[in-house]
Amino acid sequence: MKTTYAALVAAPAFALAAGHADARPVSYPGGWTWMQMNNGDFSAIHAHYSPTFRDSIGLYSERNWGEDWHFTGLQYNRLVKRWNETGSQANVYLKGGVGQADPFGDAGAELAGFIGVSADWETRRWFTSYEARAYDLGFNQSARQSARIGVAPYIGDYGDLHTWIMLQVDNQPESETPTTFTPLVRFFYDVQLLEFGYTPETERFTANWIVRF
Amino acid sequence: MTKMNIFLSALALTIASPMAVAQSETGETAAAEATMVTVSVKGMVCDFCARAVTKVFGQNEAVDGVHVDLDNGEIHVGLKPGMSLSDDEIETLVRKSGYALVSVEREAI
Known about the structure:
Chain A is mainly beta. Helices cover 8% and strands 63% of the residues of chain A.
């Protein structure tokens, strides 16, 4: 009961305290995941393999149009803590990446890396998540955070098409528009997850795709 | 004549023995019942969760089929005839999938 209460309090607190809040960055043992995120400010690809349900490692590549740089490197994700409760699940993850980054133009590539923390809490009806990430690209240091809240208008069983209505809040202090709100719709069927959104402040579309196999 | 009887008897036994064993093995196999195991778990709330469970249980050689009931937080595991999974093995598979075991119920089918 105490654990349940802590999880229930912690997850919304994370969400309110607040990038991109991607889906769970760790799969089942032996599972592969392909994630593609595009929101107008950046496009990113993250392909990873999970040797256990607690770890995943893979490639992360991001082209950031808002700050004019490109990063490519290895990313490791670790499930630090999971709360399994009747009808709900909450998770805390740590993420880290190391690779090389280069600014758009003639400058050469530099050693670069990032660290991040994310948390989520989910029932079959409600979803909340939060992610914060800090980059050191040598020529540029930046941070961003993102939070989401979502609701499923109907409850589908395993194998059905699942639909979520979500609102994402992004905060990127260095950006021309530091805080943005993006309504999204998520479709989740079989191993495929698709998201489409629109950010009125920047007049940009979001399109995310995740597949697990 | 006695020697002929002994030879024929031995020949008959030699031919009949493997058949008797085969019938015995067939009988035992037919008698072994398939088992359905209902595993209740906590934390299984989405299709990715269900897929994890299906993959992990499906890799076990004793498992014939897996069905996930998200509504009730249950995994229905069909075992192959003559095969078994102990409660400890089931708990290990549930943990390996990333979830928490609540209970295990077995039913012969």
